[in-house]
């Protein structure tokens, strides 16, 4: 397959590129370094040195003998997006090209404007590149479980049959997200669904939970091929923050009550899921929505898991609740379906003590790089 | 009240400005002439000569002794939007500043991009102007009944309580619109709801059906104060097209089967509704959604009404079905709630034979201006 990966410099984009290239697909990655730019501007540098995309591609070629084509371009500019799709002629576009930070999207008006413009803009341009050049391209879009928010009813996979006053219809599952970033993904889905049903496009929208992990079969033993690892309040996930806090010997900071439940998955499972989606494209006119996570637990449970893993390698871990900088329910019902990807063949890698311990060992090797000032919340939802 | 009307040059914006000014409110209108620009570019000029905003304001002052402040500016540019809100200090913002044509939004990629950028951009900027300058401003946003599409269950006013597997929650009513223009209004509502619940803004979202009418108490006998009247396939509503076809002696063109049902309302009822909404602002943190129409009927029934009104003034009217340029259900269930505005005090003006006849008389006076080449569909949904 010819696979075009947008946002190919990202935490998921880069491992995805290596994954497809390693199995023999023809891979082109595009990125405009937006995340690098923002992380520099917000004093949110990653823990490991991050070679630029050209360097990574060259290193991957040395390491594996496989090639990846890299283009530095802005998918939010239609001419650039259109030209790349026209020339590369992808069978599948994997669309990660979004500003990925919820806190950044809540920082101020300019940051919110950038997030809205970039995220809607890239999705819109991918849609129109497909309409203009080849409506048969299978677009695999990364959404987020955060689109659903925390409703008081079971979360289904994208769609909901509703019975109302004795009549029935099927709708996109109603969504209410917790940040502007997550809301842009709600809008992306609305936009994709409109164009899918109007122009018979082919789209899979993967509603993904928070991803953790560093090592994939393609980067074992080669740090230059690691994905970016952010632990700051802006780009770091709660998993990364907790792991770094454990290594730095400072308390794990649980936001509020810590009963916020989310669905998590291993980086290697993201690679599996995206490949399973790409290998089973949907029909023209179909928007397939899959909930992409393997296990769901609360922030308190996550803290306990990191505590246990820390103990396992001799770290003394403390857990502390701090004021929640976000506006979110800290105790809520949460039960989300996630059978679609299992049916496609996903074999989950769960968040075991061994996996967390392995991450802690890698982080410990970079302990001197940890800058604790970056960890506490700098952005508040008000 | 201090009322800021965005899109104040529009079909509804201008009559709204006169309505509030006439009753003694302090009114400022803003427009960037986007609709005028597009209607020129697409050969879609209105039937009546349209004085520019400065001319209209001067004429209104002569006519009524009341003043309206007019600013030519682009609300999609945040600096301009923010400065106007900061300086005018509105109590209420009435937000009509959107690219209003469904067919234009489906013309091609540049037209779609302009629609998305303008409509989301103006809404986003209004939100942030309120956050930055005064979150207590009541934002009255014009949505559209088209956000709901044509679901197979009853349409409620904005919200739906859903029971699913024995549990319940309340959600924004799930929406699936029929054009990109209508979809941008779905996205507007999503965006407004996110910021309302996160920053305690005050918003009323009026889901309006197609509006018809020319004459309001403020422009009787003064054509220079008429709203724009488009009858072309891009900016003209189905009502205007039918009326002009009746006057021109060409068949009324029903798209497809003509069983498409929509909720309609009189221009004077829009003025009532917007004033009722403005006069009863919602609390901070509330998004109130009201369905703004007074009666619902099919396109075939509309054609019959125009036929009858034409007969009434001696016109011979023919009705003809043509291939539907849109992708929409031509037969469907439709039953939409609309009690909220009636409860606020709306006194409907229905689409009577007299009202349609009066419009036909005004149009007949401009019969020589009718350019029939503009009426047939020039944009198709594929």
Question: Can you tell me about this structure?
Answer:
- The structure is a homodimer of 382-residue chains.
- Chain A contains twelve helices and 14 strands.
- The first copy, chain A, is of the alpha/beta class and 382 residues long.
- Chain A has a domain at 2-217 and 266-295 and 333-348: 3-Layer(aba) Sandwich (Rossmann fold), CATH 3.40.50.720.
- The longest helix of chain A is centred in the first third of the chain and has 25 residues, at 109-133.
- Chain A is globular.
- Chain A starts with a strand and ends in an 18-residue tail after the last helix.
- In chain A, 55% of the residues are buried.
**Architecture per CATH nomenclature, i.e. the level-2 architecture of the domain at 2-217 and 266-295 and 333-348 in chain A:** 3-Layer(aba) Sandwich
Summarize the main sheet of chain A: 7 strands, parallel
Rounded mean pLDDT score of chain A = 97
How are helices and strands ordered from N to C of chain A?
A: EHEHHEHEHHEEEHEEHEEHEEHEHH
Most extensive interface between two protein chains, with residue counts: A-B, 44 and 44 residues
DSSP helical segment count of chain A: 12
Assembly state: homodimer
The CATH fourth-level homologous superfamily of the domain at 2-217 and 266-295 and 333-348 in chain A: NAD(P)-binding Rossmann-like Domain
Percent of residues of chain A in helical segments? Answer: 25-40%
Report how far apart the termini of chain A are. 46 Å
Computed structural class of chain A: alpha/beta
Cα gyration radius of chain A (Å): 20 Å
């Amino acid at each position: 397959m010819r696979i075009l990966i947008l946002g190919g410099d990202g935490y998921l984009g880069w491992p995805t590129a290596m994954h497809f290239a390693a199995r023999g697909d023809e891979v082109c990655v595009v990125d405009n370094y937006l995340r690098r730019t923002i992380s520099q501007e917000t004093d949110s540098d990653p823990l490991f040195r991050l070679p630029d995309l050209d360097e990574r591609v060259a290193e991957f070629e040395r390491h594996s003998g496989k090639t990846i084509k890299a283009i530095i371009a802005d998918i939010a500019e239609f001419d650039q997006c259109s030209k790349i799709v026209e020339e590369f002629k992808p069978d599948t576009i994997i669309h990660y090209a979004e500003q990925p930070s919820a806190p950044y999207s809540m920082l101020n008006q300019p940051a919110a404007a950038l997030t809205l413009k970039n995220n809607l803009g890239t999705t819109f341009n991918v849609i129109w590149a497909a309409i203009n050049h080849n409506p048969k391209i299978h677009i695999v879009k990364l959404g987020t479980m955060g689109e659903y928010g925390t409703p008081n009813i079971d979360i289904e996979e994208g769609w909901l049959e509703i019975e109302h006053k004795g009549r029935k219809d099927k709708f996109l599952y109603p969504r209410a997200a917790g940040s502007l970033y997550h809301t842009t993904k709600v809008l992306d889905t609305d936009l994709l669904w409109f164009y899918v049903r109007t122009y018979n496009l082919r789209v899979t929208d993967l509603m993904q939970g928070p991803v953790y992990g560093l090592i994939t079969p393609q980067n074992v033993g080669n740090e230059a091929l690691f994905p970016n690892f952010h632990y700051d309040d802006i780009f770091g996930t709660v998993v990364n923050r907790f792991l770094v806090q454990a290594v730095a010997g400072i308390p794990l900071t649980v936001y509020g009550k810590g009963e916020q439940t989310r669905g998590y998955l291993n980086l290697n499972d993201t690679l599996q899921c995206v490949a399973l989606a790409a290998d089973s494209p949907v029909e023209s006119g179909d928007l397939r929505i899959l909930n992409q996570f393997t296990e769901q637990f609360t922030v308190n449970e996550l803290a306990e898991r990191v505590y246990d893993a820390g103990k396992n390698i001799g770290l003394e871990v403390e857990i502390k609740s701090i004021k929640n900088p976000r506006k979110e329910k800290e105790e809520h019902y949460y039960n989300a379906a996630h059978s679609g990807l299992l049916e496609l063949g996903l074999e989950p890698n769960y968040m075991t003590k061994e996996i967390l311990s392995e991450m802690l060992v890698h982080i410990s090797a970079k302990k001197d790089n940890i800058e604790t000032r970056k960890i506490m919340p700098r952005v508040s939802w008000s």
